[in-house]
Predict the structure.
Amino acid sequence: MTDNLIRGFEEFKNHYYGEDNSLMPKLVDEGQDPKYFIISCIDSRSNPGTIFSTKPGVFFAHKAMGAIVRPYKQGTALSAALKFAIDYNNVKTIVILGHTQCGAVKALCDGLQDEEIQSFIEFAQKALAKAKTYSDNEQDMLEHTEKEVVLQSAENLKTYPSVKNALDKGEVVIKPWLFDMAAGDLLEYDEEKQKFFVISD
Ligand SMILES: [Zn+2]
């Protein structure tokens, strides 16, 4: 059942441990120096390593349903990871990567009755409330919510002491991004124009 994963690993090994490309042994010897911290959804179609075609060593990864960032709380997986990445590994760019057709956003909009899931996605309630002020058409509201969740997560990220401290010193930037899966586009939020714009070709 896991044959495809094992074949994939062998392909990876041939690629990065081969004579022509010994990137992995180099990263093991010299250590990693990732430039980005990417917060993405658990969705199997929006995996940053795949969609950004990155080699090993490029970014730290954190995954959560809907790429939702809850407000700061000490001792969470994300707060420790951000501290490690920013204070000990000099990460300068944090990407929040939302995506369209997101199951978590749909669950939020539909009010899915599942305590386990609800107790996490409720951190994005404010985003849903804001999206509702734009439209009451179901599809429009869903699309607005996808964007508002990314923005809400970006706001919540600023409550993490490691992020706040680095932001105050101008040492880190937060990039609110949205992967439009249907169109195959990458969008970024423009703070000035208060809109998401396509940044990929
Ligand atoms: Zn998702």
Q: What stands out?
A: Strands lie at 36-40, 59-63, 93-99, 173-180, 185-190, 195-198. The chain has two domains: 1-31, 32-198. The longest strand covers residues 173-180.
